[in-house]
Amino acid sequence: MSTSLHSLTDHELDAELTRSRAEYDTLKARGLALDITRGKPAPEQLDLSAAMLSLPGDNDYVIDGIDCRNYGELPGLPSLRALFGEVLNIAPESLIAGGTSSLETMYDVLSFAWIHGTCDAGAPWSSAPVKFLCPVPGYDRHLAITESFGIELIAVPLVSDGPDVDAIRELVAGDPQIKGIWCVPMFSNPSGVTYSEQVTRDLLSMQTAAPDFRIFWDNAYAVHALVGDAPEVLDVLAIAAQMGNPERPFVFASTSKMTIAGGGVSFFAGSGENVAWYLGHLSQKRVGQDKVNQLRHVRFFVDVNGVRTHMRKHQQILAPKFELVTTILRREVGDSGIASWTDPRGGYFVNLEVLPGTAKRVVALAKDAGIALTPAGSAFPSGNDPRDSHIRLAPSLPSEAELQLAINGLCTCIRLSAAELVHR
Ligand code: PLP
Question: Domain range holding 29?
């Protein structure tokens, strides 16, 4: 469709609706079963780490003078902390290598603050109402964690260089119940936005009414560029210290989208005080980490160049899929004014905006045609996108052939829902 729907006559609109319905019926009749709901790595991406499964091998279990088969060394293997310290631009002593899921680490950290309070303020967060800010669109599982604690979420807009700092400043300065904010600073899920240094500095320096305010800085996609090399990772801990707020960032990351999804290594980082606080509470939960898993990551990557080379291989698999999505969208709905989308330089998602009031309808139409999309609204608090226009696309898992079918089918659904809307 090359003309704006709004410029059509009533007669032309009738014809467009009839044509879109017929196109949709044909799509439905194909009986597709496609899934682009979640940002899972494709099998070929998982194959890139196949060699890691036979590491460290029978006779390789001592590193840094530590027998990885035994209890102990709660902060994780020094060699892995040094390696990923370089990847994440964090001093090894500030970086803890943990279990297999960073989301679990985030849940733990929130639980520790909830039950015990943070290192710099005595009261447990559970002792009074707590609110969190969430830049939207955001990562649904972040939102779900906080919502499961009964924390009230306040949406703040995410713009091209990070969250809207002016809006945030005003909110955090006036309300001591706002204890935290969710941030995915690089190639954000789902917008693909990377925070600028200025936005980062502003977040780390702003005045907050809550003395124990924390930024949950989830750097899940630090080295996950789709085009060229990933930008330099900012040293948030150093900036926070310079700004006089050393305890503000809780940093998280993992190798889930480097090696094995949900079976890699997660990381936590913070100031000396935060790390001591975290380890103190963690030590009530476990005696040590899975250091054999950590060792195989050290053996597999060897050094920071090993990580970069490995991530270029992921890029070679992922970039053509993202290219395919945007090419089809451009061709099918590009100049119709009924959809817009991001062309991300990294991360795992394309952010699709359809006409306000039609995202749920598009997702429902797609579902009925056998194309599973992330539920509309899931990137917003309580699953409620006030404009009902945002849809998250996750192109990584399907093959290119499946993706082609799914996005073409999606465009059919976008056209039909737009025609229905304008025809009303
Ligand atoms: N953080 C973000 C922003 C993510 O997008 C994801 C997975 O999609 C995760 C964390 C999950 O990480 P993990 O597998 O380490 O729990």
Answer: 5-45+308-423
Residues 288 and 163 in one domain: yes
36, 189, 290, best to mutate for ligand 1 pocket (most atoms within 8 Å of CB): 189
pTM here? Answer: 0.96
As given in the structure block, the two tokens for residue 37 are 């709901």
CB 358 within 8 A of CB 421: yes
Is there a single domain that holds both residue 181 and residue 297? Answer: yes
Clarify whether residues 14 and 79 are in a common domain. Answer: no
| CATH, residue 332 | 3.90.1150.10
Specify the pLDDT at position 2.
42
In angstroms, what CA-CA distances link 266 with 110, 175, 245, 261? 16, 32, 24, 11
Is 96 in the same domain as 170?
yes
Site residues for ligand 1, CB cut-off 6 Å: 39, 101-103, 139, 184, 189, 218, 220, 254, 256, 262, 266
What is the pLDDT at residue 3?
A: 54
CA 218 to centroid of ligand 1, rounded, Å: 8
Which segments of the chain have a pLDDT < 70? 1-3
How many contiguous H segments (helices) and E segments (strands) does the chain have? 13, 15
Interface confidence, given as ipTM, is 0.99
